[in-house]
Design brief:
This protein is α+β, with helices and mostly antiparallel strands and 233 residues long. Among the domains are: 6-85, Ribbon (Tumor Necrosis Factor Receptor, subunit A, domain 2); 93-149, Tumor Necrosis Factor Receptor, subunit A, domain 2, CATH 2.10.50. Helices cover 16% and strands 24% of the residues. The chain has one helix spanning 152-188, and strands at 6-10, 19-22, 27-28, 39-40, 48-52, 61-64, 68-73, 80-85, 93-97, 106-109, 114-115, 123-124, 133-137, 146-149. Strands 1-2 form a two-stranded antiparallel sheet. It is rod-shaped. Residues 195-215 have a biased composition (Polar residues). Residues 22-62 form the TNFR-Cys domain. TNFR-Cys repeats lie at residues 22-62. Keywords: Disulfide bond, Membrane, Transmembrane, Transmembrane helix.
Length: 233
């Protein structure tokens, strides 16, 4: 019989007792035995971490990582063999019971009038009247109520009226400016008299004093077109 941390190298025979050998690295033996091989050290994985390294006398001790819970245990229920991550509650739900290292998270839906966008805690819908506002959009289990100022529509209406009045004033000023400019041009120009009964072509030899010269081509006499005679001043 070999002690803990060792196994049989050679069985006893005759006058010779049992020969033992120590367990190699990565193996262990945690009880007196007559075995030929040591046990393989356990590897911590699947949501577990090493809390105590393996020695030749005892196996690796694994613990559940925070945020995980154990799904399966060893036969003696002492060691966790496999752990998985805690479930996350969906939007519109909240955590009823937080997960532990032995149990998963328990979720529950938000009650009416509450919302949870991230699935952690349910918050009550905003009361728009507290902010002297009115409800613009109803809340859901994942979204809060949307509020708007009570005079929102009136504000937009006032802006529209102001823009309209401003546009009309600008248009009136432009029209007034154009009219004044036209009157100014007419006042500075000579007054033309046209006699439809006596109008005739002006000979090309007319004296400059009889006809008011102008730089505008439209006012030059033309025998094929109606022309204007200007009175001498």
């Amino acid at each position: 019989m070999c002690a803990i941390g060792s196994v049989v190298l050679k069985d006893c025979h005759g006058d010779y007792s049992t020969t033992c050998k120590p367990c190699s690295k990565g193996t262990f033996m945690n009880e007196p035995n007559g075995l030929l091989t040591c046990f393989q050290c356990k590897i911590c994985e699947n949501g577990l971490y090493i809390s105590q390294d393996c020695t030749t006398l005892e196996d690796t001790v694994c613990e559940v990582i925070d945020g995980y819970y154990c799904m399966s245990y060893s036969d003696d229920k002492r060691d966790c063999l496999h752990a998985i991550k805690h479930s996350k509650c969906k939007p519109g739900e909240q955590i009823k019971t937080p997960g532990t290292k032995t149990s998963d998270t328990v979720c529950e839906p938000c009650p009416p009038g509450f919302y949870s966008p991230e699935g952690v805690n349910c918050s009550k819908w905003t009361d728009c009247s507290v902010k002297n506002e009115i409800e613009d959009q109803e809340g859901t289990s994942i979204k809060d109520v949307q509020c708007k100022p009570r005079n929102w529509n009136m504000r937009y209406g006032l802006i529209a009226v102001l823009l309209t009045v401003t546009a009309l004033l600008l248009l009136s000023l432009i029209v007034l400016y154009l009219k004044r400019k036209r009157c100014f041009i007419l006042v500075r120009s000579p007054v033309a008299e046209t006699n439809p009964h006596t109008s005739q072509c002006v000979p090309s030899t007319s004296q400059p004093s009889e006809i008011q010269k102008t730089d505008s081509p439209a006012l030059h006499p033309d025998c094929n077109k109606e022309h204007k005679i200007y009175k001498n001043t």
